UniProtKB/TrEMBL annotation:
Name of the protein in question: Pentatricopeptide repeat-containing protein
Family label: Belongs to the PPR family. P subfamily.
InterPro entries: PPR5-like, PPR_rpt, TPR-like_helical_dom_sf
Keyword Repeat included in the entry's annotation: yes
Keyword Repeat attributed: yes
MF terms in GO: mRNA binding
Keywords from the UniProt entry: Repeat
NCBIfam families: PPR (TIGR00756)
PPR repeat intervals: 230-264, 265-299
Transmembrane segments: none
Length: 518
């Protein structure tokens, strides 16, 4: 009977891996972060919920965002096993990191203090936990420790499949795909053909942009007789297809997963939403989100981050602002890319007080996070909103960063901004600087400058603009001559009016109606 109830070391390792990569319905109420968000924002209960959300928003590591989803694991006996290991390994981890520049000392510490501990856990979970701790701060250093472990395997302490899987994942994270492939081949040669080994290499391919190799490896896994894809396998495949915007293939993979009776988890749905956002399939994105809110697998913080990006990209500002209010604390502190996406959404869509909202979001972005495309967008928005001072600040910022505007639309917006403010001298200075900086120059700025000079009766300066046009190999057009005709007519310069009329006849342009004899 003892053998019936005893859980082997290998089974413990498999269960630990399962909890790392899958989620089940929690037996205890989830923490505030995972509770469904409510659309209503006026009730006192919802305001209290939002305050609670901000207080409890966790620090989420870039490479381990889904760890906090598994409450059942935290409450399980296996969690206590891992907690005990974490405490035991922490002094060793710190000592290794203190000697990170001296591999000789590192290997000596491992021999003296690590070897006995690792041998006492034949399933490999002790070494896997050490790699977890080292990999979070220095993946490249973790690979050096892994090499030490591989050498130990030659002296009677064989590596386990979980150790190989962890090594492959860290190699992928370190952009060392060749090492990941080498570890995979080494593991399979030792008859460690497990789904976790395949998943690890698929993940390494995914993280390094090798989508074709990832899909090919998935087919190899399906052809294996004794193992079958897991939910983690399909999560990786869905993510790969979604990143390529292969939405039909992604949906087919999701359906295949369900046909195998694999229950989707929050990562599955998040990857689907990510794919729909990448492919701009907004109705499917919204449908998946609503299905999560109504079903047993509730949205998590990553779901709301993806939906915020989707709403920003699609220009759905009302929904974007609602989601932002719910996760504002997290976004403001961690998600600069999302802040930029929201600014971009405001730039491309008309909304009340969009400049004020843009300025508030800009304050959250550090100066070192400069992006040329955002700088150009802001120039256009400030010009369209008649914010001349802010427009010029953004223009100066573009000049300082050697950012060149190459679109006629932005240049016309700038010129129109100066025209509405009747700032011809500022326009002239801008044109001079734009010429030197290699910005796209068309006739519009020069024609505008001529009109503005004419309105202020500065006819000589208006005429000098013709030389600027010639210097840029721009011929006089009908519009050029009409501007001069109107200016001379306005100030009674009959001789010059007749001269312009003669040029119009010479080039075959239609004469102004008022110039024709009655």
């Amino acid at each position: 009977m003892k053998r019936v109830w005893k859980i082997s070391d290998a089974a413990q390792a498999e269960l630990l891996n399962l909890h790392r990569h899958t989620s089940s319905k929690p037996k205890t109420p989830p923490p505030p972060l995972l509770l469904p968000f409510f659309a209503a924002t006026n009730s006192s209960s919802n305001r209290a919920f939002k305050r609670n959300l901000c207080v409890h928003t966790p620090q989420i590591d870039r490479f381990s965002r889904i760890i906090g989803l598994f409450n059942e694991f935290i409450a399980s006996p296996y969690a206590r096993v891992r907690e005990d290991l974490t405490r035991k390994l922490l002094p060793l981890t710190n000592e290794l990191l203190q000697n990170i520049d001296d591999l000789g000392s590192v290997f000596r510490v491992l021999d003296e203090k690590g070897l006995t501990l690792f041998r006492s856990h034949k399933n490999g979970i002790a070494f896997v936990e050490l790699l977890d701790q080292l990999g979070s701060s220095s993946p490249h250093f973790a690979l050096q420790v892994l090499n030490w472990r591989r050498n130990q395997a030659e002296f009677g302490t064989p590596m386990t499949s979980e150790e190989y899987a962890k090594g492959i994942r860290i190699a992928g994270r370190s952009k060392n795909v060749d090492l990941a492939v080498e570890l995979f081949a080494e593991a399979t040669n030792k008859r460690f053909k497990t789904v976790s080994i395949y998943n690890a290499l698929m993940g390494a391919y995914m993280c390094n942009g090798h989508a074709d190799k990832c899909q090919s490896l998935f087919q190899d896994l399906k052809n294996e007789a004794n193992i079958r894809p897991s939910i983690v396998t399909y999560n990786i495949l869905i993510s790969v297809l979604g990143r390529l915007a292969l939405v039909d293939s992604m949906d087919a993979a999701f359906q295949e997963m369900k046909d195998l009776n694999l229950s989707p988890n929050v990562t599955t749905y998040n990857n689907l939403i990510e794919g729909y956002v990448t492919g701009w399939i907004w109705d499917s994105m919204e449908k998946t989100f609503q299905m999560m809110k109504a079903g047993p697998v509730k949205p998590d913080i990553n779901t709301y981050l993806k939906m915020l990006r989707g709403y920003a990209y699609s220009g759905n500002l009302d929904q974007m602002e609602q989601i932002y209010e719910l996760i504002k604390h997290h976004v403001d502190n961690k998600e600069i890319r999302l802040i930029r996406a929201m600014i971009c959404a405001y730039c491309k869509n008309s909304v009340t007080d969009r400049v004020g909202k843009i300025v508030a979001l800009l304050k959250l972005i550090p100066e070192k996070e400069y992006r040329p495309w955002l700088n150009v967008l802001l120039i256009r928005v400030y010009a369209e909103e008649n914010q001349l001072e802010e427009m010029e600040k953004s223009i100066n910022e573009a000049f300082e960063h050697n950012t060149a505007v190459i679109t006629n639309r932005v240049m016309r917006s700038i010129v129109a901004g100066y025209f509405r403010s009747d700032a011809v001298d500022k326009l002239a200075e801008f044109i001079r600087r734009a010429e030197c900086a290699g910005w796209r120059i068309c006739r519009s700025p020069y024609h505008c400058k001529m009109v503005m000079y004419a309105s202020q009766k500065r006819l000589e300066e208006m005429e000098s603009v013709l030389n600027e046009l010639s210097n840029h190999s721009m011929n006089r057009t009908k519009k050029t001559l009409f501007i001069m005709y109107t200016a001379y007519s306005m100030y009674g310069q009959r001789r010059k009016v007749e001269l312009i009329m003669g040029l119009m006849c010479k080039y075959g342009y239609e004469m102004p109606l008022e110039a024709l004899p009655s």
